[in-house]
Amino acid sequence: MTETDGEIDLDYELDDRPPLPKSLLLGLQHVAVMLVPATAVAYIVAGAVGLSAGDTAYIVQMVLLFSGLATVVQAYTVGPIGAKLPIVMGTSFTFVGAASSIGASYGLGAVFGAILVTGFLVEGVIGWQFDRIEPFFPPLVTGLVVIIIGLYLVPVAMDYSAGGVGASDYGAAHNVGLAALVLFVAVALNLFTDGVTRLLSTLVGLAVGYVAALALGLVDFGPVAQASWVAVPKPGAFGFSFEPVPMVTFAFLFLVSAMETVGDVSSVTAAEGRTPDSDELRGGLFTDGLLSSLGAAFGAFPVTSFSQNAGIVNFTGVMSRHVVGVAGVILALLGLSPKVGAAVATIPSPVFGGAVLLMAGMVAASGARLVFLHTDLDRRNMVILAVSLGLGLGIATRPDAISGLPTAAQTFFGEPVVVTALTALVLNTFTPGDQSPLFDAPPEESVAETEEPPASADD
């Protein structure tokens, strides 16, 4: 493909309808690219909270269903909700730490209660008042958030690679070997191949590791055999409770998630050589919030746009929103089958760990790239980087350091993403500099117009 003034040569434009067989294949490619990271969040949180295989499968099922519904809404819109753009939706790594810790401390009812209340409330306000909020989240702030999300997940990935916390064979050679096999295959395909093979490198690595685990007798198909083919979602499957601290925590994380969505919407419209208009940004944010709240009512974690799928649009030159609509329908259909969720839940911990380790590293690397490309590393910005990452990693590695604080403060400030984002936001806002919205920032100039869009935590 060639570029002309930032616009790529599109094979299918926004409203084009490729033939149905081609639409199905292109839609399946979108599904394949996002399937592993989308279900990874459900898998990690379920493991942290200690859910049974059946409950884990149900959450995976709900994640797929509401990812599909949100994708269809983004492609076709419902009133003011939806961007009418080819945006694939799925669960975001932004929420994994809070959902895990709050779920373990307060129960999943508090997690889903907080999402139910804050999802549309927070992102609805952001969509309504977006022009006022955007300058507070320049690449320095959003990049730091993406970095800490990736770094925070590395120890989680290592625990899975060793067999899972509490496993009797934790650290056994066969566990480490399976994780290494997945990592090796995925990295080799990503670095030394092109086209579809590179795009699906993580999925192929996972498949190779899964086959190896089958050969070692480490896969239990019992839950799959017991699961039904079709099931209707259950409202309030895990109950609801409305605790102030979890709600404040998720409200802040939805603010961070909104900035990711803005970046992905901008990335998609860049294929046409333009920035998104206010209706597209507002509709995209409204979809984030409303579908996250609706999904929480049935046991799904928050949905947001996926950067890797925005990358596929630019890579393939297929911008048709109808192709993404097909992908959304496929995801929704998969989400109506408990057998699909149960099948995903059979992935052994070390196989899953090898894939998550790669994804976590790529998330951190994409955040670093965002910072380094769009931020001068002068004294001011180096101090903001040092303090934000230092506090975030400090909390991630030594959470007991704040054990003397009240329980509510431990919950809120015990989240590395919250600490890093809040520190970067405050320091960048009140310290004079080019990226500060209060001092030297150029007037009437938005991030969406001047900066590369922020990388999503789902990469």
UniProtKB/TrEMBL annotation:
| Membrane topology note | Multi-pass membrane protein
InterPro entries (UniProt xref)? NCS2, UacT-like, Xan_ur_permease
Q: Which family does it belong to?
A: Belongs to the nucleobase:cation symporter-2 (NCS2) (TC 2.A.40) family.
Q: Which residues cross the membrane?
A: 24-46, 58-78, 110-128, 140-158, 170-192, 199-218, 238-256, 323-345, 351-372
Query: What are the start and end residues of every segment in region (Disordered)?
Result: 434-459
Q: Which organism is it from?
A: Halorussus gelatinilyticus
The protein here is known as: Purine permease
Task: Give an example GO cellular component term for this record.
Answer: plasma membrane
Question: From the UniProt record, which GO molecular function terms apply?
Answer: xanthine transmembrane transporter activity
- Key words of the record: Cell membrane, Membrane, Transmembrane, Transmembrane helix, Transport
Determine if Metal-binding is one of this entry's keywords: no
Per UniProt, subcellular location reads as: Cell membrane
List all Acidic residues biased stretches.
442-459
